[in-house]
Amino acid sequence: MNKTLQRLTRPGWLPFVLLAAFAGAALYLRLYHFAAAAAAAIVLLLLITLIAWRQRTKQLTTFLEAALYDTESAKSSTLTSFPLPIAIFALEDSRIIWGNDAFFEMCGEAGTRLGASLVQLVPQFSGKWLLEGKSSYPALLEIRGRKYQLHGSIIHSDQDADRPAENRPIMGITYWIDVTDYDNIRITFEQTRPVAGIVVIDNLDELVKNVPDRVKNDLRDAVEEKLGQWCAAFHGIFRRYDRDRYLLMMEHQAMEKLKPGRFSIVEEIHSVVNPFGIAATISIGLGADCETLGDALQAADNAAELALSRGGDQTVIKNRMGFEFFGGRGGEVEKRTKVKSRVMANAFAELVRDSSRLYVMGHRFGDLDSFGASVGVCAIARLLGVRAEIVADLQHTAATPLADRICAEDAYRDTVLAPSELPAHIDPSALVVVVDTSRPEQVEVPALLSACKRVAVIDHHRVAATYIQDSAISFIEPYASSACELVAEMLQEFPESSSLLPCEAEALLAGIVLDTKNFTLRTGERTFDAAAWLRRSGADTGDVKRLFQADLDHALAKYRILGQVEVYREIAVASPREAQDRVVAAMAADDLLNIAGVKASVVLAPDGRGGCFASARSIGEVNVQLIMEALGGGGNRNAAAMQMPNAAPEEARRKLYAAIDDYLNSERGSQR
């Protein structure tokens, strides 16, 4: 088959070249008779070649029709009258062997151009997809303003399977389908799909507190006016349906145009300020790519709640790919009432009473806040008469001194379980309480979440794109200093809290001291209230201080890390090449904030198991949670962390600096 094809398509120019060379030599040697004879031979040969070419073209068409008919890749009686553009080309160099008139008209050619390269006529074309066994081109091809969907196959014959590789088919056949109108309709459909949104004034209570009614109305009217003007710019629908909530409808193309500006309306709302200097903040939740308007509205509501649980002052989009976050660079606003803590405490008490037992766990590589909050939850269960157990890997924790102190108490003997000590079958009425994290992949034992039907979450970090869903209770407050502060507030609502053990009070106080850096960061009025209550409940500040003492090896390791620091764009970065203890890395990150002119710090180190981890800290101007979140981690504005399994130190370092650049460049753009 291939020999026949090569015979029919092989150029016959060699005799012309030889005769022309002979004629030129004869002229050079002044043998004019020989030169004239050679010229006459060239003319005669040209006439013979033209006649033969016409015959070969007919034979080629007949051959191709027979070949295609034999392989069932074309069933029409003739290729030339096929209504779709067709081209047959050589796979090795994309040379056109044959094409019907419709194909060359599609390419804008007046006549056929057999032998020309298909890439010359369609520059974006490649025949690699046929060699990969695909039957259609992976993208649409645009030719002269029209869009084409390309299908094709390799031309085979029945005898191809028995032939050696060098004699196998060398041709590909392509069919070009004009889908311009269809694709334009698809684009219009996607661009005009409705997007539902919910806008929430985050701090309306604080904004209108202690101001006259007239000023209250003026403040809300000012916010609504800015939102209305913003919405009118993209022809959206904007209506208030509750005291501090608004319904928003827009087209998908409007949402895409707002993304590059990172929904600047969130920043513009800050210009609305009450007489006491408090600026208004809003959160926007958008639901996109949904089947129905009801689904879009539900997605928008979920996105708005997620934005609020991350501290507000931001936009969250929920689409078929997950969540997208915009903004959220401002600090959390502390709530001035304990209403939610009281409600959560009552609901949690009912949940505990209905449980046969409790399993409490924090995040992997736990710290004093995670373990201290777990002890606090066990204290609630003890006061309610329900058995509780802490699930913690004491071999990989930064809370070893506290764990030793708790395990020595009679009330907590055999209370701390290693992950391997969990029973094979969990009681269906058991309750799992997750503290200091809301991400399912970061908990101590992820399988325990799926084994228990009832889960409660208590956390103070901003919620990430992945979070524990369908929890019975979710007490997530990003404004709180620590998970221990939230648990301490819940404990205060129990009449039996007067019987709190000193070790339990010290465990909770240690978590607060850790996350506030000795009450210097993320410390609010309620933080001091919780600490004062714990002190009254028997916590010894001296014993708490001793929980933070590091041994000599850890102290020396910390100073070695500090000796490798460099300041990059006002962020102190230390990246030792040796594997480091996570506790030491966190201590070093804290100390790096003492360098003058440094706004944040990051310690990036190998974890000794083929990956890397990072601890990040900030004094408030830089939101390290957004930097760590870009690397798959999380946390809050002042303290965050991330893990990179199977990442080399150089790769992790490169990604860290890229995340820092993205954050700072985005921050600078939003300020403009």
Structure description:
40% of the residues are buried. Helices cover 42% and strands 18% of the residues. It has 24 helices and 23 strands. α13 (339-353) packs across α17. It starts with a helix and ends with a helix. With 672 residues, the protein is α/β, with parallel strands linked by helices. The longest helix has 39 residues, at 32-70. The model is unreliable at 1-9 and 69-77 (pLDDT under 50). The strands form four sheets. Strands 7-8-6-9-10-11 form a six-stranded mixed sheet. A six-stranded parallel sheet has the order 14-13-12-15-16-17.
Question: Which key phrases capture this entry?
Answer:
single chain; about 675 residues; alpha/beta; 6-stranded mixed beta sheet; 6-stranded parallel beta sheet; 24 helices; about 40% helix; disordered N terminus
Radius of gyration over all CA atoms, rounded? 37 Å
The helix/strand class is alpha/beta
Q: Taking strands numbered 1, 2, ... along the chain, how are they ordered across the largest sheet?
A: 7-8-6-9-10-11
Number of strands: 23
Average predicted local confidence, pLDDT = 86
The helix fraction, in percent, is 40-55%
Strand content: 15-25%
- Could you name the ranges where pLDDT drops below 50 across 5 or more consecutive residues? 1-9, 69-77
How many strands, what sense, and barrel or not for the largest sheet?
6 strands, mixed
Question: What's the overall geometry?
Answer: elongated
Helix count, DSSP H or I runs of 4 or more residues: 24
State the distance separating the first and last CA atoms: 69 Å
